[in-house]
Amino acid sequence: MLQPVIMAGGSGSRLWPLSRQLNPKQFLPLAEPQLTMLQATIKRLDGLACAQPLLICNEQHRFLAAAQLNQLGMDDTRIILEPCGRNTAPAIALAAIKLHTIGQDPLLLILPADHQIADIDAFHASMTAAIPLAEAGKLVTFGIVPTAAETGYGYIQQGEQLSDRAFTVNRFVEKPDAATANDYVRSGRYFWNSGMFLFRASRYFEELAEHRPDMLAICKQAALGNTYDLLFTRVDADAFAKCPDESIDYAVMENTADAVVVSLDAGWSDIGSWSALWEISSKDASGNATQGDALAHDSRNTLIRAEHRLVATLGVDDLVIVETKDAVLVAHKDRVQEVKALVEQLKATGRQEPISHREVYRPWGVYDSIDHGHRYQVKHITVKPGAKLSLQMHHHRAEHWIVVCGTAKVTNGDKTYLVTENQSSYIPVGQIHTLENPGVIDLQLIEVQSGSYLGEDDIVRFEDRYGRVEKAPVDTRVVTHLK
Fold first, then answer.
1. Which of 180, 260, 315, 437 could bond 176 through an S-S bridge, CB–CB 3.0 to 4.6 Å?
2. How far apart are CA 174 and CA 1, in angstroms?
3. 352 Cβ partners below 8 Å, 6+ apart?
4. What does the alpha-carbon distance between residue 195 and residue 8 come to, in Å, rounded to a whole number?
5. Which residues contact residue 470 at a Cβ distance below 8 angstroms, ignoring those fewer than 6 apart?
6. Smallest Cα–Cα separation from 129: which of 170, 164, 168?
7. How far is CA 342 from the centre of its chain?
8. Phi, psi for residue 309 in degrees, rounded to 5
9. Given phi > 0 = left and psi -120 to 50 = alpha, else beta, which region is 318?
């Protein structure tokens, strides 16, 4: 039985403005409208003899990941949280260490959460063909049969043929220039590097111990400080921060004598750019791929993604147009690899658009920042049935809540009461408060904040069912309230 390890880290900045730091591409429905990329990766395992997946993601994405697993009915899936990104080699080490501590030494099937695969049967066939090799101690990577001379992928040169699908690895090659990529594809002896792997956990330990003992030691030290919160496993943040930032390709696969590549011809894409999404999307007779409320007139080979309003084009070619509530991207398809640089430029100016959408997901629901100005902010808040915000207070802002749908159970200082539709409640500056949805339908309300500072970091949590309390300062008003 395989143990899938799904890598759900990364920021997906080349897919801005849809992908944001707090809601990156692996948590978005890009290729399949009904499933996010993470969910599609999990569903792709149906039909394989697999254990329940082990998920690795960044600390700041934990509730997004848990909510999407919940939608698949996988409430007991284990999730390892990385306090900071340190690339794939340390992340896989954390997974192997966790399984080792409970006495397991499985075959680890390493899958990035942001890939699209069209032919599931072919995917299963390649995974199955790799199992005997991994059981024999090989470290298997999956090489994509190239369909074009791509310069955005790494390549794997095949060596001796071991079976119909399997070859020894001669070498791994960095992203080539166009002429070199053409030579590789014409030779028929190169694959694209997929970033998917299969090997036994103990073999990975052996290779790390030989080639990167420092990394292995740090990951073990970080795992010694594991803490557990709901389904989340947190490692020691200070220890893990000292770990080298290195991919499994650099740390292990380029150094081992036991690397094997198994071919995979399954309609694969890593959707690493908007042009890649255009390539795999359904198109009209003029080559336009549209989603949402879009009108393409006398336009060709253009990607239009309209999230919230009508987007109309006239007489354009080879463009990418992506509309969200707070940002619009218009780019030539040949320049979409530079979107990452655009995002870095926005970050350097301190703008919020690279970080989060107007809509922000929380474990209790979602809020949408409708409007803001000097000393005020307006939000549309949705609280899921049975969910509750933390017991909290703010130093610099007051809040006025108007219920528009459902019933709110409000704690306001030492009073607790119900607020129904068309009623409101006022929370003064410094007042300890919380909000709960006791009903069976979504609670929707409008929140009007006013004050001298309206940042999300102006919050002191005293109680929280989602584990977000961090050594809150002692406050006598809280002690009195909790009595």
1. 180
2. 33
3. none
4. 13
5. 461
6. 164
7. 20
8. -155, 170
9. left
Mean of the per-residue pLDDT values of the chain: 93
Q: Backbone phi, then psi, for 257, in 5-degree steps? A: -90, 0
- Please, which pLDDT band fits residue 80 given cuts at 50, 70 and 90? very high
In the three-class reduction of DSSP (H, G, I as helix; E, B as strand; rest coil), residue 353 is classed as: coil
Q: Does 32 score more than 90 pLDDT?
A: no
- pLDDT-based confidence at 59, cuts 50/70/90? very high
Tokens of residue 166, six digits: 């399997």
Give the integer Cα–Cα distance in Å for 132 and 294.
49
Q: What is the pLDDT of residues 176-204, one digit of tens each?
A: 999 999 999 999 999 999 999 999 999 99
Q: Count the Cβ atoms, other than its own, within 10 Å of residue 386.
A: 11
| Alpha carbons 403 and 446: distance in angstroms, whole number | 7
Secondary structure of residue 480 in the 3-state scheme: helix
Q: What pLDDT is recorded for position 361?
A: 87
Helices 213-224, 201-211: axis angle to 10 degrees equals: 120
If you count DSSP H runs as helices and E runs as strands, how many of each does the chain have, helices first?
A: 12, 30
Tokens of 306: 């309209």
Are 403 and 417 in contact by the 8 Å Cβ rule? The answer is no
- Position 479 scores a pLDDT of 35
pLDDT tier, 229 (very low <50, low <70, confident <90, very high otherwise) = confident
> Cβ(441)–Cβ(406) under 8 Å?
yes
Give the separation between CA 85 and CA 90, rounded to whole angstroms.
Answer: 9
Buried b (16+ CB within 10 A) or exposed e, 396-430: ebebebbbeebbbbbbbeeeeeebeeeeebebeee
Using a cut of 0.85, tell me whether the model's pTM lies above it. yes
| CA-CA-CA-CA torsion sign (340, 112, 271, 188) | positive
CA–CA gap between residue 16 and residue 20 (Å, rounded): 6
Q: Which residues does 350 contact at the CB level (< 8 Å), separation at least 6?
A: none
First to last CA, the chain: 52
The string of DSSP letters for 157-208 reads EEEEE-SSSEEEEEEEEPPP-HHHHHHHHHHT-EEEEEEEEEEEHHHHHHHH
The per-residue pLDDT for range 85-114, each reduced to its tens digit, is 999 999 999 999 999 988 889 999 999 999
pLDDT tops 70 at residue 378: yes
Structure tokens given for 265: 């011809």
The whole-angstrom separation of Cα 433 and Cα 133 is 58
Give the H or E element holding residue 238. helix 237-241
Asked if residue 201 lies in contact with residue 108, where contact means CB atoms within 8 angstroms, the answer is yes
Q: How many residues does the chain have?
A: 483
Secondary structure percentages of the chain, helix, strand, coil, to 5: 25, 35, 40
